[in-house]
Design goal:
Elements lengths: L1 E9 L4 H11 L3 E9 L5 E9 L4 H9 L4 E7 L22 H4 L8
Antiparallel strand pairs: 1-3, 1-4, 2-3
């Protein structure tokens, strides 16, 4: 059975990965996903359609327990977003990580 969920998470590193990972580990196949920043830029609004033999209400309860998830809503009988909204490029930009940009020092014998 297919179900569409609407979520709002904090815009934290790894929040989207935790949401998607939980859905996959619990046996829900992600069929559709739209993510966009909220007006204030502090949150990410997600809409996703999942398919599974398990009830969608189980996934809603599990997602609600994640630390970064602010809100979860099961959209019953509502249409999903027809087209993804345009996302400003700065929405998902992150500050460069010093460890990622630094080269390791050469090993001197």
């Amino acid at each position: 059975m297919k179900a569409t969920l609407r979520l709002e998470t904090t815009r934290a590193e790894g929040a989207l990965v935790r949401v998607l990972g939980l859905a996959r580990r619990r046996g829900y196949e992600i069929m559709f996903l739209v993510a966009r920043c909220t007006e204030d830029g502090a949150h990410v609004a997600l809409e996703m359609t999942v398919e599974s033999d398990r009830p969608a209400a189980v996934l809603v309860r599990q997602l609600a327990n994640l630390f970064d998830v602010e809100r979860v809503e099961l959209l019953e009988g509502k249409q999903r977003a027809a087209e993804p909204a345009s996302v400003p490029p700065s929405c998902f930009a992150t500050e460069p990580n010093d460890s990622a940009t630094r080269r390791p020092s050469p090993v001197v014998p």
